[in-house]
Amino acid sequence: MNKEYSPKDIEKKWQDIWENEEAFKVGVDQSRPKYYALVEFPYPSGQGLHVGHPRPYTAMDIVARKRRMQGYNVLFPMGWDAFGLPTENYAIQNKIHPKIVTKNNVEHFKAQLKALGYSFDWSREINTTDENYYKWTQWIFLQLFKKGLAYKSEMPINFCTSCKVGLANEEVVNGVCERCGSEVIRKMQSQWMLKITEYADKLIDGLAKVDYIEKVKVSQKNWIGRSEGAEVNFRLKDKEEILMIYTTRPDTLFGATYMVISPEHPIIEKYKEEIENYQEIVAYREQAARKSDFERTELAKEKTGVCVKGISAINPVNNKEIPVWVSDYVLMSYGTGAIMAVPAHDTRDWDFAKKFDLPIIEVVAGGDVQNEAFTDVATGILCNSDFLNGMEVRDAKEAIINWLEDKKIGHRKVNFKLRDWVFSRQRYWGEPIPIVKCPCCGYVALNEEDLPLRLPEVESYMPTDTGESPLAAMRDWVETTCPKCGKKAERETDTMPQWAGSSWYFLRYIDPDNTSAFASKEALEYWMPVDWYNGGMEHTTLHLLYSRFWHKFLYDQGLVPCDEPYKKRTSHGMILGENGEKMSKSRGNVVNPDDVINEFGADTLRTYEMFIGAFELSAAWSMEGVKGCRRFLDRVWKLQDMLIDGEEYRPQLETKIHQTIKKVSNDFENLKFNTAIAAMMGLVNEFYKANSITKGEYATLLVLLNPVAPHMTEELWEMYFAGAGKVYQQKWPEYDEAKTVESTVEIAVQINGKVKATISVGLEEEESSVKQKAHALPAIAGLIEGKNIVKEIYVKGRILNIVAK
RNA sequence: GCGGAAGUGCUGGAAUUGGCAGACAGGCAAGACUAAGGAUCUUGUGUCGGAUACGACGUGUGGGUUCAAGUCCCAUCUUCCGCACCA
User: Fold this and answer.
1) Nucleotide nearest to A623 (CA to C1')
2) Which pLDDT tens digit goes with each residue over A771-781?
3) What is the ipTM of this complex?
4) What DSSP string runs through A374-396?
5) pLDDT in tens, A679-718
6) Chain B: bases < 7 Å from a protein Cβ
7) Nucleotide with the nearest C1' to A794 CA
8) Protein CA at A625 to nucleotide C1' at B23, angstroms
9) At A543, which helix (H) or strand (E)?
10) pTM for the whole thing?
11) Which nucleotide comes closest to A618 if you measure CA to C1'?
């Protein structure tokens, strides 16, 4: 009887050995193929690791460990995305410097991650709040600035009344602040913006050549929101003024019965003298402005608006006069802030027309436009549209655009939902924006050799009531000289958003200590692109889009060797509490990984997190399930009591072993960790049935299981195979395809589709011989006797179906 | 409203070039070992009927295609997630 399996005794031991041996430290090695496996670096929050974290980390650790055993030079790094509001808020509340808070949190996180036995190359650890890191974040910002992709703009921003900070559109959820849930209002402020819209097309086109799971591609596309249509000029009656609109349905131009402009549209001010009900419109505009985004969406069903009296427009296709309305369902920020309304073929226009009793003219036949808008573009045929009559929608679109371009009253136009990225935060705990505002020269970039621009020590991290960053109060920091003309100037006091540091971190891992560039060309050429990037669904739109944007920019500057940063992107599902709800402190269903490790061991936690269910789907935690995984590892441990000599696989187990190697190898690649583990459990059960295992069989099992349970497998390996080095140095087992199939198989014999018997046949056995054997079976013979066999279908090695009447 | 994903035993979940539904776990039950077991091992476990043999039914619901459907087609219901007046 051997000693008991005690994770406490062995896990720390192996973690220390790996560290001392620098087992997972890598460098550029042209003689071996590289593999770059990446997980999203965490935000080191005060709560420490959550059982949700180990799911993606373990998955990619398995991939990394397997790849190493397959001979790849594997880069698998980890770091900290440490700027951010929670740390700052904690610092404010507890009067501790965010730097100290971050340091403590990182230490805690790191200890927890080490206890899980991940094969990270810790020598490449990075932290976005290190000045040697954010120096390069600032440097990249300067490159964007120099190319005109960073600009300052006075514009309405989302402002959280509680956090007192400007938010990106993306950080406003249902009209409230994503972090604190407080009301968000619009406020005019001068903001740094990044021109991500310049890359809208490239960001969409690039998706065609990368291997991302489909839903990620779809959400990227939806966010960018590319739409193809036309801009059309409508003339105002008795004026020279042109009112330009954007439409994706220029084919319905004959059906335009009125126009709608956004409440903020400039022609209102321009023609205020002639608008008879100007006061009414101003009142409406003010009412609309007071509505938060939330109210605007809530009230989406009920249309509101005011007719602009005194001016009207002319439909350019038929010269009919049509009224102009103001309504907040038309947004100033999209298209031209004005639309032509075609109530017959647009549901919003239809709702509006019904409410205000405006005419509805059918121009695409196929629906009943008095009852609902007919929007089907696939089946409709144009009518009431002069030269477009009889055409299909697609052809009519082309025809009308050509006509408009010909007459110079319109043109083809592509629009995007994507807006430029609000890059300023009026907060302390972020990267200072390395710009100086000079009264003579305007906004001037710092000299690159003056980077990093360090975050100064301040008395208070609280944002000021004016909404300015706490940095604004540091007069001796703010007051500086212009790098260009040398005269007195002031520093920018806004900082960058948390997205900044994470937009390029995977590049820094490649060469983290480089002081002359964010990474050397040589290292970038060797390691990029990231071969496999796994992360949460919650980051698939923003982080992915932002980092792809920065990367494409760097590529255009010749600074990185590839135009897409990530070759493959996958996503993991959330780990829910035992009650099936999202884990949270307030629900009291949070599971701490430390407790699980203490009670069951890190290998058990790793195994369970992989066995819990389909990797991409969310899964509810179960302590009973954890126990089951521990039991499995115990059974593997105890196999040593059944160990017998022999390097070979025994004939009766050979097929099963080859099948398992194949299944585990493939499943690890396809994120099917749960079935890979199930296959290994099945194999272990076979050894138990045989009540024995040869050394050769055990060695294979230990190597296969090593990526999942690295500590225990190393310990067992050391006990029995120490002469052959460590498990992580072994070669990944190979399988022989020919040996994964049984030479004789059991097939089902059906009569009229119902299984009536099973029969053992040779895989390559002749069909006629199989049939003969089947017919001879007593269970079958009795049933087909006296019946007419209409048909017999034999699927090789699977099934024989006899159709009898 | 639009987009995406998912509905399978008591539970988590397997199985889709259509080919024996329920792998692997958990739970439960019985047995073995034991001073004891909340440890371990063995066996059983979809539902209904039947003592058994066996039979019928069974992958959200209703149709369909097929020798054969969880898988394909049509319709429909439910849940979760994302986006939401983007013209």
Assistant:
1) B26
2) 888 888 777 77
3) 0.92
4) ---TTT-EE-SSGGGTT-BHHHH
5) 999 999 999 988 889 999 999 999 999 999 999 999 999 9
6) 1, 3-6, 12-15, 19-21, 23-27, 39-43, 55-56, 67-69, 80-87
7) B19
8) 17
9) helix A542-556
10) 0.91
11) B80
